[in-house]
Amino acid sequence: MNKVTKHDLNKHNFSGGPGVLPETVLEQLKESIVAVPDVGLSILGINHRSDWFAVVVAELEENIQNLLGLPKDYHCLFLQGGATQQFSMVPMTLLKGKTQSAEYLQTGYWSNKVIAEARREGPVHVSWSGQAAGFTRLPKDEEIEFNPGAPYLHYVSNETVEGLQFHRIPGRDDVPRICDMSSDFLSAPRAFDKFSMIYAHAQKNIGPAGVTVVVVKDELLKDAPRDLPAFLDYRAQIDARSILNTPPVFSIYVVLLVTRWLRDSIGGLAAMADLNMKKASALYRAIDASDDFYCGRVVKEDRSTMNVVFNLKTKDLEHQFLASAQEAGFSGLNGHRSIGGIRASLYNGLQLSAVENLIDFMENFKKCHS
Question: How far is residue 3's CA from residue 43's CA, in Å, rounded to a whole number?
Answer without folding.
Answer: 35
